[in-house]
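To fix ideas, we close by showing one paired sequence and structure record:
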Amino acid sequence: MAGVVVRNTARAERDVVDAFARYGVATVHEAQGRTGALTASITPIYPGSHITGSAVTVSVPPADNWMIHVAVEQCREGDVLVVAPTAPSDAGYFGELLATALQARGVRGLVIDAGCRDVAELQRMSFPVWSRCVSPFGTVKETLGDVNVGVVCAGQQVEPGDVVVADDDGVVVVPRTKAPAVLEACRAREEKEAASRRRYAAGELSLDVQDMRGRLERAGLTYVDRDE
């Protein structure tokens, strides 16, 4: 039954959430076992933003943004608003006025599996949005939804308080209770990649750095030399 607002939801420790800012979405996705990535249809409305934050979730009816207005009150500094329609919608749920209200509360950005608008103004404000599309199509305020309940956004289950990481590659969600462990996995992965990067820069081949030759041979790869 729609019409529920859950207040005072748990969030991951702030230092853990902020530490994810050191890592890109691809690294976080790989570090947690190639899970948590939203579908590739969710893209930034302008390039160059990289945010981390705690999810405030909103379930909204198609072409109705009433509950986004309700959700603003539940947002704290360091949050990311995650909006999921209950049925597919390309409407422009979100624009400059709502962004102004969220920015005043310290919200770091928006992820929405639907449309947004006022792109030029949002970029001028430096308020980042990841959306399924850009659309001028307006919305109404007639039907209730829910705030801070579990939602499915762009193919991923998102619970209130989960860690959201977003950059030019897309969006990944880390379950709140797993965030410290995933953060450690990110650190380990980054250290491994840094070592590989140094060897690549020195001219070594990935075939040798990652010890691929034996596996390729066992898979049946052969080399054939042509006579010149």
